[in-house]
Specification:
Distance between the termini: 52 Å
Number of strands: 0
Largest sheet: none
Shape: elongated
Radius of gyration: 28 Å
Order of helices and strands: HHH
């Protein structure tokens, strides 16, 4: 567990609160955009707000507006993922005791598995 002597920003309650507020704000904005942008595109096409949309057949109008609405949602999702990946994160270092115990258990299992597989193989013959 981290202690204040490590100088971690995560232990500062004010910093944690601000970080969580920023994350929630980004999530809320992305969620609203995923809802509003496709509806705005559909509304604009159905009310002939885009130039040239009045000359389209209803089939083409529905197809293009639906396609652009789906593409807009994917763009918003990609932008949200980009912002999430850009956020700084603290490097996590595993506990050395845990790592050594895990390595020992893996080394212990490897010979047993070979022994079991050879005995299983003999039984199958």
């Amino acid at each position: 567990m981290l202690t204040p002597s490590h100088g971690s920003k995560l232990l500062n309650p004010e910093c944690l609160r601000l970080t969580m507020a920023k994350v929630i704000e980004k999530f809320f904005i992305a969620s609203m955009l995923m809802w509003a942008v496709p509806i705005a595109i559909l509304y604009a096409f159905n009310n002939n707000l885009f130039p040239g949309s009045a000359d389209m057949s209803p089939y083409s109008l529905t197809l293009i507006s639906g396609f652009l609405a789906v593409i807009s949602v994917n763009i918003v999702i990609a932008f949200y993922i980009y912002l999430a990946m850009k956020e700084p994160s603290e490097k996590h270092e595993p506990d050395p005791k845990f790592v050594s115990e895990a390595e020992a258990s893996v080394k212990h299992l490897v010979p047993d598995q070979k022994h079991e597989s050879s005995s299983t193989h003999k039984k199958e013959e």
